[in-house]
Amino acid sequence: MKNHPTDPFVVSVFDVSHRIGDEREVHLDEKLVERWGEGVAYVDKGHTVSVDLRLEGLHDGILVSADIDTTAVAECVRCLESVNVPVQVEFQELFAYSPTEELEFSVHDNHVNCEQLVRDAVVLSLPFQPLCDEDCLGLDPETGEKLTEPREQNATTIDPRWAALEALTSTDKTTASKPAAKKRT
Predict the structure, then answer these.
(1) 3-class DSSP state for residue 97?
(2) What is the reported pTM?
(3) How far apart are CA 120 and CA 8, in angstroms?
(4) Are 55 and 13 in contact (CB under 8 A)?
(5) Taking burial as the number of CB atoms within 10 A of a residue's CB, which of 62, 83, 101, 109 is the most buried?
(6) Host H or E run for residue 30
(7) Cα-atom radius of gyration of the chain, to the nearest Å?
(8) Integer Cα distance of 13 and 93 in angstroms
(9) Residue whose C-alpha is closest to residue 12's, from 59, 64, 50, 58
(10) Which residues of the chain register pLDDT less than 70?
């Protein structure tokens, strides 16, 4: 059975509907018509999302199990380089024959619409802080170039913005060591 002509994630379940124990597998390779996700990681418009669905007929609905594969575009949060992140996620949801308050999804005209489930599963699995490499050192704060080896920690170098505070600590050593005078009332 072919999926819906206008919505690629709407799948016909006519052959397993009200047939307890029957099952069918469907493979979908769909190009996204819009970007999924925001921030530093997202699946861009035009990328292919591969979905392997298993549809199982049950007494009260259709159990849909899915394995999803795609690639997200991300930006390393340390060095800002572009990174491709493989996304592999799965879900399982019951589509009820008759809508109820307990079940969010239902079968409509012998079709199930999996788009919201696929989108939610993919977007929720995107990394919040993607890295190009676990050992990425980030950018050099002075030059802005990507670091290839750890920076030397030089204790004598003081940021010029803090120089005024350094002057306070070096000239005020005598008052800092004296105990505070008690107030008389």
Answers:
(1) coil
(2) 0.71
(3) 16
(4) yes
(5) 62
(6) strand 23-31
(7) 29
(8) 14
(9) 64
(10) 1-6, 101-103, 153-158, 170-185
* Residue 63 structure tokens: 């159990």
Q: How far apart are CA 97 and CA 124, in angstroms?
A: 27
Position 69 scores a pLDDT of 95
Cα of first residue to Cα of last residue in the chain, in angstroms, is 94
Give the DSSP per-residue string, 25-59: EEEEEEE-SS-B--TTEEBPTT-EEEEEEEEEE-S
φ/ψ bin of 142: left (φ > 0), alpha (ψ from -120 to 50), beta (otherwise) = alpha
Encoded tokens for 15: 């052959």
Q: Where are the beta strands (DSSP E) in 58-157?
A: 61-75, 82-96, 111-113
CA angle 27, 47, 86 (to 5 degrees): 80
Query: Residue 9 and residue 54: Cα distance in Å, rounded?
Result: 13
Residue 39: predicted pLDDT: 84
Q: What is the rounded distance in angstroms from the CA atom of residue 108 to the CA atom of residue 12?
A: 9
The pLDDT of residue 169 is 72
CA distance 81 to 131: 9
- Per domain, the residue ranges of the chain are 10-125
